[in-house]
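S., here's the first fold you wanted:
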Amino acid sequence: MATIRSIAKQANVSIATVSKVLNGKTGVKEETRQLILNVAQELNYRPNLNARSLKAGIARTIGILAEDLTVFNTPEIIDGIAVGCDRVGYHYILANLRLFKRFGHRMPDPATHAALIREALDTLLSKQVAGVIYIGSHSHQVPLLAEYNELPFVCAYCTCDTLPSVVYDDETASYDLTERLLQNGADRIGMITGPVDSLHSMSRGRGLMRALYDHRVPYNPALTLTGDWERDSGYRLAAQLLDAGVNAIYAQNDNMAMGVLDCCSARGVAVGRELQLVGFDNRDICQVCRPRLSTVALPLFEIGQTAAGHILKLISEGEPPALLTKLPCTFIERESTIRKEG
């Protein structure tokens, strides 16, 4: 079956140019437009290939390309996109790269990643979507997407230097939660980070260090330990921090914070009284563990809505919004940081 990529290859033009022509968009020379239509007919390209749709250019569908639907952040972002589309009568088509299921926390090599993206985008563009939103499974840079900057294209929960991107401000959130720990009386704060090459680890670490500096509390690098986002690393590293005499632990995600809780329970340390503990992400488990975990809620729904607004603006006006939009997080204080009297 012919694809947009095969049309682009035979016509010696870009995928974006083919998509514009098949969606009836302007900005393509008439000679090029006719060439693409002729090639499409020769290759028996079928999806929505009729004169009415080509001339009208009224496609009201966007494509959503998710790195992995099973990662906790993705469903809420999609829900935000859906609401944004529903309000203006747009539909969406969803494609899933399954990167986490296939490769775990490590991203695939660039060639493999690029091939997966191209295959999925071929499918979406063949359905004549008017634009695409790419949802990252974590906040990382995806330079491969720069190839598609001729299309209405927005990144959500990840970034590309040449495309509008919507993320959240975890550095400021980290600053705020560290400040709260200091206000609660903590003066030796241990931190369990994610992997050292993670943008989350770096930005959350910067937030903690800025807060300590602003409150004239010395930063002790010996109290920052590197985890892997998993519960077992939280358990293992919590033991080292407790031995070092910390009175607060900031685990950079809730999974690792659960490991800290496990370690404290095994050692008889009363979290919320003898030790303050905070996590990050506001996963469901935060409200059912005991004590309930103080954490940071991510604006996932808002990221989806904002990304939808950006893509619809690009489609309707052709004007790109700001290249980078950072949305605020919310610190949620629960029993793991509230000091109880008596």
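And the second, which I think is the more interesting of the pair:
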Amino acid sequence: MPILSRERIVRIGEVMLTAGGAAPGHAAIVANHLADANLAGHDSHGFIRIPQYLEGIERGKLDPKAEPEVVRERGGVIQIDGHSTFGQVVATRAAEKAIEKAREHGVSMATMGNLDHTGRIGTYPEMAAKAGMAAIMFTGFAGGTFGNNVAPFGGRSRRLGTNPIAMAFPHSDDAPVLLDFASSMAAEGKLRVYRNKGQELPDAWVLDKDGAPSRNPNDYYDGGAILPIGGTQGGHKGYALSVMIALFGGMLGHVASPSGDADAWTGSTIVVMDVGGMAPIGGIRSEVQAMMSYVKDTPLMEGAASVLFPGEIEANSRRERLANGVPIDDTTWSQVEGLFHKYGVRDALDNGS
């Protein structure tokens, strides 16, 4: 199992995506995003995605050179057409603009549509938290033939995306309070990680093609569907959350980009609040740190090692992996390394140039 540094992941990502046709600036944004997802412990949204993006470019689904365009702007509201380029590029630009607008208006909202996979969406509210702001982001899919992989509660066919939601609030410089999860039992990339490792899922996260609950990740790829959060018993909650994220993210993103898929809602929305404009940010951070300390200082249930604040797992993973490197499973490494010759990058990467 290879152990890669952050710098090595970025280098491989940049070289391969550029060889696949990406504009150098776009390749840098995506490669850094993938490396940071791995550092945060979300391998499902990191290095493992390189083959997917190269395939998207080859199929013409992803335009690796297109520039996101602000198509409407009114007060603190921005609408962006991604012109089918990397979701990380579009969402990064949208978050940057939303942070600027929040400084001016106190609260801002940026919607974006017609974009490819956005990666780990917790990245973008984290950007706002680092700027002393709070943020919430919705990424939703519904309809069409691409992006649907979750069955609505009571159904067995794919109708919704994994539809993640993320929130961040300022806390400390390296660890905002962070919520970041799919409204399904797992993101599709998590299934990909278990499949690549040859492991069963921890629980019945998916339905097979006949509608039976399963722990075999291959059942999803053989025509099954992912269950909403709550699974077969409490999945009505995850399903309802998914529908609302499809509205706030997918539908609002869809209307921002008329050049996108007319038959589907696909998009994201980020809302940013300048909490530092309401009170001194240092005082807000102190209040949040005091609350997190109070929550963490709780007598433990049987079998538990500690109470963690939301986002602490990612912060701990980031520190550990920066020091010791990122383990890449053999199947994922084989998939990426197998493309070195195809894209003519082996010599450049072997020589470290």
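Why I say that: The chain has a mean pLDDT of 94. The two ends are 23 Å apart (CA to CA).

Talk tomorrow,
H.
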